Amino acid sequence: MYDPTHRAHLPAETITATQLGCYSTSVVTALSVQDSNSVIDVIPISSDTIDAQARFILEDIKIRAFKIGAVFGIETLDAIAGIAADYHDLPLISTFGKHFYNHVEVEEPSGGRLYTEMLTDAYLDILAPLSYIAVVDSHYAQQWTSDDFDIHTTDDLIRHVLDLGAEYCLVLNERYGSSMRHRLIQCTDREDYFAHDPHIQTPAEFADMVASALACLLANGENTIDAVNLSLTVALKQIEHQIQLGMGKSQPDRLAYYET
Protein backbone atom coordinates (compact mmCIF):
# COMPACT_ATOMS: atom_id res chain seq x y z
CA MET A 1 0.00 0.00 0.00
CA TYR A 2 1.27 3.48 -0.87
CA ASP A 3 1.28 5.90 2.08
CA PRO A 4 1.92 9.47 0.84
CA THR A 5 3.06 10.63 4.30
CA HIS A 6 5.84 8.00 4.29
CA ARG A 7 4.78 6.89 7.75
CA ALA A 8 4.25 3.22 6.89
CA HIS A 9 4.27 0.70 4.06
CA LEU A 10 5.59 2.08 0.76
CA PRO A 11 7.74 4.01 0.11
CA ALA A 12 8.90 4.24 3.75
CA GLU A 13 10.00 0.60 3.77
CA THR A 14 12.49 1.25 0.97
CA ILE A 15 14.44 3.44 3.42
CA THR A 16 14.78 0.51 5.81
CA ALA A 17 15.91 -1.70 2.95
CA THR A 18 18.58 0.80 1.96
CA GLN A 19 19.86 1.05 5.53
CA LEU A 20 20.23 -2.72 5.64
CA GLY A 21 22.21 -2.80 2.41
CA CYS A 22 19.38 -4.28 0.39
CA TYR A 23 18.00 -2.95 -2.90
CA SER A 24 14.24 -3.37 -2.80
CA THR A 25 11.63 -3.52 -5.54
CA SER A 26 7.92 -3.16 -4.90
CA VAL A 27 4.41 -3.58 -6.25
CA VAL A 28 1.73 -1.22 -4.94
CA THR A 29 -1.52 -2.97 -3.95
CA ALA A 30 -3.52 0.13 -2.99
CA LEU A 31 -3.35 3.90 -2.66
CA SER A 32 -4.01 5.38 0.76
CA VAL A 33 -5.75 8.77 0.85
CA GLN A 34 -4.63 10.32 4.13
CA ASP A 35 -2.78 12.98 6.05
CA SER A 36 -0.32 12.61 8.92
CA ASN A 37 -3.19 12.04 11.35
CA SER A 38 -5.42 9.38 9.81
CA VAL A 39 -6.38 7.29 6.79
CA ILE A 40 -9.43 8.66 4.97
CA ASP A 41 -9.82 6.19 2.13
CA VAL A 42 -8.07 3.21 0.53
CA ILE A 43 -8.25 2.65 -3.21
CA PRO A 44 -7.20 -0.90 -4.22
CA ILE A 45 -5.23 -1.50 -7.42
CA SER A 46 -6.70 -4.12 -9.76
CA SER A 47 -5.42 -7.66 -9.36
CA ASP A 48 -4.49 -7.83 -13.06
CA THR A 49 -2.27 -4.76 -12.71
CA ILE A 50 -0.63 -6.11 -9.56
CA ASP A 51 0.01 -9.52 -11.13
CA ALA A 52 1.41 -8.02 -14.33
CA GLN A 53 3.73 -5.62 -12.49
CA ALA A 54 5.01 -8.36 -10.19
CA ARG A 55 5.68 -10.69 -13.11
CA PHE A 56 7.55 -8.00 -15.04
CA ILE A 57 9.83 -7.35 -12.07
CA LEU A 58 10.43 -11.03 -11.33
CA GLU A 59 11.30 -11.82 -14.94
CA ASP A 60 13.75 -8.92 -15.03
CA ILE A 61 15.39 -8.75 -11.59
CA LYS A 62 16.70 -11.51 -9.36
CA ILE A 63 14.67 -11.43 -6.14
CA ARG A 64 15.83 -13.16 -2.94
CA ALA A 65 12.84 -12.71 -0.58
CA PHE A 66 9.21 -11.56 -0.51
CA LYS A 67 7.34 -9.44 2.01
CA ILE A 68 3.55 -9.31 1.67
CA GLY A 69 1.72 -6.48 3.40
CA ALA A 70 -1.73 -5.03 2.80
CA VAL A 71 -3.79 -6.91 0.17
CA PHE A 72 -7.33 -5.84 -0.71
CA GLY A 73 -8.76 -8.49 -3.01
CA ILE A 74 -9.18 -12.25 -3.15
CA GLU A 75 -8.12 -12.21 -6.81
CA THR A 76 -4.92 -10.45 -5.76
CA LEU A 77 -4.27 -13.08 -3.09
CA ASP A 78 -4.74 -15.77 -5.73
CA ALA A 79 -2.24 -13.99 -7.97
CA ILE A 80 0.26 -13.80 -5.10
CA ALA A 81 -0.23 -17.51 -4.45
CA GLY A 82 0.58 -18.26 -8.08
CA ILE A 83 3.74 -16.16 -7.94
CA ALA A 84 4.82 -17.70 -4.63
CA ALA A 85 4.34 -21.18 -6.10
CA ASP A 86 6.62 -20.28 -9.01
CA TYR A 87 9.26 -18.96 -6.59
CA HIS A 88 8.70 -21.40 -3.74
CA ASP A 89 12.41 -21.55 -2.88
CA LEU A 90 12.38 -17.90 -1.72
CA PRO A 91 11.34 -16.96 1.84
CA LEU A 92 7.99 -15.16 2.05
CA ILE A 93 7.18 -12.96 5.03
CA SER A 94 3.48 -12.32 5.67
CA THR A 95 2.02 -9.82 8.13
CA PHE A 96 -0.97 -10.12 10.44
CA GLY A 97 -1.07 -6.65 11.94
CA LYS A 98 -3.58 -3.85 11.57
CA HIS A 99 -5.53 -4.13 8.32
CA PHE A 100 -7.41 -1.32 6.58
CA TYR A 101 -10.34 -3.21 5.06
CA ASN A 102 -12.83 -0.87 6.74
CA HIS A 103 -11.46 2.02 4.68
CA VAL A 104 -12.30 0.38 1.36
CA GLU A 105 -15.60 1.55 -0.13
CA VAL A 106 -17.73 -1.46 -1.06
CA GLU A 107 -21.29 -1.75 -2.28
CA GLU A 108 -22.99 -4.17 0.08
CA PRO A 109 -25.81 -3.88 2.64
CA SER A 110 -23.58 -4.91 5.54
CA GLY A 111 -21.44 -1.81 5.08
CA GLY A 112 -18.28 -3.77 4.37
CA ARG A 113 -18.55 -6.40 7.10
CA LEU A 114 -18.92 -9.28 4.62
CA TYR A 115 -16.04 -7.94 2.52
CA THR A 116 -13.81 -7.81 5.60
CA GLU A 117 -14.76 -11.33 6.71
CA MET A 118 -14.21 -12.82 3.26
CA LEU A 119 -10.88 -11.08 2.76
CA THR A 120 -9.64 -11.96 6.24
CA ASP A 121 -10.50 -15.63 5.70
CA ALA A 122 -8.85 -15.61 2.26
CA TYR A 123 -5.68 -14.03 3.67
CA LEU A 124 -5.56 -16.68 6.40
CA ASP A 125 -6.27 -19.50 3.97
CA ILE A 126 -3.98 -18.45 1.11
CA LEU A 127 -1.01 -16.66 2.67
CA ALA A 128 -0.47 -18.69 5.83
CA PRO A 129 0.61 -21.87 3.96
CA LEU A 130 3.01 -19.84 1.78
CA SER A 131 4.75 -18.10 4.68
CA TYR A 132 8.27 -18.80 5.80
CA ILE A 133 7.63 -16.39 8.68
CA ALA A 134 4.19 -15.06 9.59
CA VAL A 135 4.48 -11.89 11.68
CA VAL A 136 1.56 -11.55 14.12
CA ASP A 137 1.02 -8.40 16.19
CA SER A 138 -0.87 -9.39 19.33
CA HIS A 139 -2.31 -5.88 19.58
CA TYR A 140 -4.33 -6.48 16.39
CA ALA A 141 -4.97 -10.22 16.58
CA GLN A 142 -8.67 -9.55 17.13
CA GLN A 143 -8.88 -8.26 13.54
CA TRP A 144 -7.97 -11.75 12.33
CA THR A 145 -10.61 -13.77 14.15
CA SER A 146 -12.52 -16.21 11.95
CA ASP A 147 -15.52 -18.40 12.69
CA ASP A 148 -14.76 -20.51 9.60
CA PHE A 149 -11.27 -21.33 10.89
CA ASP A 150 -12.24 -21.34 14.58
CA ILE A 151 -9.83 -18.49 15.33
CA HIS A 152 -10.92 -16.52 18.38
CA THR A 153 -7.66 -15.78 20.23
CA THR A 154 -4.04 -14.95 19.44
CA ASP A 155 -3.07 -18.54 20.24
CA ASP A 156 -5.68 -19.78 17.75
CA LEU A 157 -4.18 -17.53 15.08
CA ILE A 158 -0.64 -18.73 15.82
CA ARG A 159 -1.66 -22.38 15.67
CA HIS A 160 -3.57 -21.80 12.44
CA VAL A 161 -0.63 -20.32 10.52
CA LEU A 162 1.75 -23.01 11.79
CA ASP A 163 -0.65 -25.87 11.11
CA LEU A 164 -1.21 -24.65 7.54
CA GLY A 165 2.50 -24.72 6.77
CA ALA A 166 4.32 -21.60 7.96
CA GLU A 167 7.84 -22.45 9.10
CA TYR A 168 7.83 -19.79 11.82
CA CYS A 169 5.42 -17.44 13.55
CA LEU A 170 6.86 -14.27 15.06
CA VAL A 171 4.49 -13.00 17.74
CA LEU A 172 4.95 -9.31 18.55
CA ASN A 173 3.87 -7.45 21.68
CA GLU A 174 3.16 -10.53 23.74
CA ARG A 175 2.26 -9.80 27.35
CA TYR A 176 4.56 -11.62 29.77
CA GLY A 177 3.74 -10.87 33.39
CA SER A 178 4.03 -7.11 33.81
CA SER A 179 6.28 -6.69 30.78
CA MET A 180 6.21 -7.21 27.03
CA ARG A 181 8.23 -9.56 24.84
CA HIS A 182 8.38 -10.94 21.31
CA ARG A 183 8.32 -14.68 20.64
CA LEU A 184 9.51 -16.68 17.63
CA ILE A 185 7.78 -20.06 17.34
CA GLN A 186 9.02 -22.68 14.90
CA CYS A 187 6.71 -25.33 13.45
CA THR A 188 8.72 -27.87 15.48
CA ASP A 189 7.53 -25.99 18.62
CA ARG A 190 10.97 -24.54 19.39
CA GLU A 191 10.57 -21.07 20.88
CA ASP A 192 12.96 -18.11 21.12
CA TYR A 193 12.25 -14.93 23.08
CA PHE A 194 13.28 -11.34 22.47
CA ALA A 195 13.10 -8.60 25.08
CA HIS A 196 11.12 -5.39 24.61
CA ASP A 197 12.07 -2.05 26.16
CA PRO A 198 8.98 -1.15 28.22
CA HIS A 199 9.18 2.58 27.47
CA ILE A 200 8.69 2.04 23.72
CA GLN A 201 5.05 2.01 22.58
CA THR A 202 4.72 0.28 19.22
CA PRO A 203 2.47 1.82 16.52
CA ALA A 204 0.04 0.11 14.14
CA GLU A 205 2.72 -0.29 11.47
CA PHE A 206 5.08 -2.24 13.76
CA ALA A 207 4.41 -5.64 12.15
CA ASP A 208 5.07 -4.25 8.68
CA MET A 209 8.26 -2.56 9.83
CA VAL A 210 9.61 -5.77 11.33
CA ALA A 211 8.50 -7.88 8.36
CA SER A 212 10.21 -5.57 5.85
CA ALA A 213 13.48 -5.65 7.78
CA LEU A 214 13.18 -9.43 8.08
CA ALA A 215 12.79 -9.88 4.33
CA CYS A 216 15.85 -7.72 3.68
CA LEU A 217 18.01 -9.54 6.21
CA LEU A 218 17.00 -12.98 4.96
CA ALA A 219 17.70 -11.81 1.40
CA ASN A 220 21.17 -10.80 2.57
CA GLY A 221 21.80 -14.30 3.92
CA GLU A 222 21.26 -13.83 7.66
CA ASN A 223 20.08 -16.89 9.58
CA THR A 224 16.54 -16.71 10.90
CA ILE A 225 17.27 -16.06 14.59
CA ASP A 226 19.78 -13.30 13.85
CA ALA A 227 17.45 -11.79 11.25
CA VAL A 228 14.58 -11.64 13.74
CA ASN A 229 16.78 -10.11 16.43
CA LEU A 230 18.18 -7.42 14.13
CA SER A 231 14.82 -6.65 12.52
CA LEU A 232 13.36 -5.97 15.97
CA THR A 233 16.36 -3.80 16.84
CA VAL A 234 15.96 -1.76 13.66
CA ALA A 235 12.19 -1.29 13.97
CA LEU A 236 12.28 -0.40 17.66
CA LYS A 237 15.09 2.11 17.12
CA GLN A 238 13.05 3.82 14.40
CA ILE A 239 9.99 3.87 16.67
CA GLU A 240 11.94 5.18 19.66
CA HIS A 241 13.08 8.19 17.62
CA GLN A 242 9.86 9.88 16.49
CA ILE A 243 9.64 12.78 14.05
CA GLN A 244 6.85 15.31 13.55
CA LEU A 245 6.32 15.98 9.85
CA GLY A 246 2.83 17.47 9.89
CA MET A 247 0.09 18.62 12.23
CA GLY A 248 -1.00 15.05 12.98
CA LYS A 249 0.64 12.20 14.86
CA SER A 250 4.39 11.82 15.13
CA GLN A 251 5.84 8.90 13.19
CA PRO A 252 8.88 6.60 13.28
CA ASP A 253 12.14 8.09 12.07
CA ARG A 254 13.20 5.70 9.33
CA LEU A 255 16.72 7.14 9.42
CA ALA A 256 17.23 6.59 13.15
CA TYR A 257 19.04 3.26 12.91
CA TYR A 258 21.46 4.61 10.32
CA GLU A 259 22.11 7.85 12.20
CA THR A 260 22.90 6.15 15.50
From TrEMBL:
Cellular component, GO annotation: cytosol
Database matches in InterPro entries: PM/HMP-P_kinase-1, Ribokinase-like
A single MF term (Gene Ontology): phosphomethylpyrimidine kinase activity
GO biological process assignments: thiamine biosynthetic process; thiamine diphosphate biosynthetic process
A Pfam family this chain is assigned to: Phos_pyr_kin
Pyridoxamine kinase/Phosphomethylpyrimidine kinase domain residues: 11-250
Gene3D superfamilies, per database record: 3.40.1190.20
PANTHER family listed in its UniProt record: HYDROXYMETHYLPYRIMIDINE_PHOSPHOMETHYLPYRIMIDINE KINASE THI20-RELATED (PTHR20858:SF17), PHOSPHOMETHYLPYRIMIDINE KINASE (PTHR20858)
Protein name, per record: Pyridoxamine kinase/Phosphomethylpyrimidine kinase domain-containing protein
Naturally occurring in which organism (per UniProt): Pelistega suis
